[in-house]
Amino acid sequence: MTSFQPAEVPGEAPPADSVSPRDSTPAAPTSVARLNQTIRGFIERWGSVWVEGEITSWNVRAGAVYARLKDLQGDAQISIRIWSSARGRMPADLKVGDHVVACVKADYYVRGGDFTFQVSSMKHVGLGEQLERLERLRAALRAEGLFDPARKKPLPFLPHCIGLITGERSDAEKDVHRNAELRWPQVRFRTEYAAVQGDRCVPETLAALARLDADPEVDVIVIARGGGDPQTLLGFSDERLLRAVAAARTPVVSAIGHENDRPLLDDVADLRASTPTDAAKRVVPDVGEQRAIVAQLRARMATRLSHRIAHDVAQLEQLRSRPVLRTPEHMIRTRTQDVWQLVTRGRELVARRIEQGALRTAELRASLRALSPAATLARGYAIAHTDGGVIVRDAAQAPAGTRLVVTLERGSVAATSTGEVAEGGPHPDPSATSEAGS
Length: 438
Known about the structure:
There is one protein chain. By secondary structure, this protein is of the alpha/beta class. It has 3 domains: 21-125, CATH 2.40.50.140; 129-285, Succinyl-CoA synthetase domains (Rossmann fold); 377-435, no CATH class. It has helices at 32-44, 84-87, 127-144, 171-183, 201-214, 239-247, 265-268, 276-283, 287-320, 323-326, 328-371, 373-378, 430-433, and strands at 49-61, 64-70, 77-83, 99-109, 114-124, 161-166, 188-193, 220-225, 252-256, 271-272, 383-386, 403-407, 412-416, 434-435. Strands 1-2-3-5-4 form a 5-stranded mixed beta barrel. Strand 6, helix 4 and strand 7 (188-193) form a beta-alpha-beta unit. The radius of gyration is 64 Å and the shape is rod-shaped.
């Protein structure tokens, strides 16, 4: 921290109304007002100095901001006051925890004896370089595809065990536990504590992430901490941690800071929650909501089932009201006459066909009888044929000695030819030359 100028500048006389130790005695002490005026006179001779420190309090009041700056290496602190006229020239995002440099001038309030410093200028330290480095890292990781929604793993609907990485006895841990248990009382946690800022933040968070990712019972991992200035959240933009989260097999939820805090972990994680409370609401379902959904679905199912049954009953009643089902025997009676008529007609057709067939058969039998050799044989004629079955049509076919078979109307006789007989001559007695026939 830069030191002030000496209280007295050589060659300059003290104020006329000032008091020195030799001017006051027990018999003639000085007044409090004169002492304060003397102190103020010396302080007013000090010039403005630039001082570096961390904002530990920040109280905005009408017309001014009252704050305190703490030394970065020790416990020394100073009180500062920023008038509204000077506040307009400073960054609007100044807050507790910021690392700043300020131009201050000592001021002593005579009436109250209060010592403070007026601030004429204040700015962040190294914030621009850090933001530029983070933007370069953001662009590189986006080019590699680590921010792509397609690579993000979905969260389970109801995790059996939630892994939680947070600071020990932190408000973030209480918020996650309280809100998750309110939504689902049976939820289980496996908590790994790690530093959430400083040099130990990244290595401890990496180790905790590795342990939880290796546990098969852990279904989702939540990395949570409360809000803070960008510098305190730098650990959650570290490239080592970002790549480890991207490579994790278990889905990871980022719940860092408040709504406006956006470390790079939010872009790499599988789900970004605005606060630890929001993470608890996003990770586990609300048992009340799920019961309401189940009740709603059951009611809808019962309603649709009732409508379906009522519809089917109405359809059945409509079918039963039809005449064919109301009096099914009517259909049989109406068809009986049709069947009787068809049977009668069938019988008539069959009888007619039989009669026609009989007449046709008689005609064919008469024609066949007229053409049959039997009729000729009945008139006294006979048929002679050789042993080979050849009918003798010419006398030359049966020379003398030829054995013949003579077929009569009734039976046949065997005979032997005596040769051809002259036309008009006497016929030989067949019995003279015939053999016994059958």
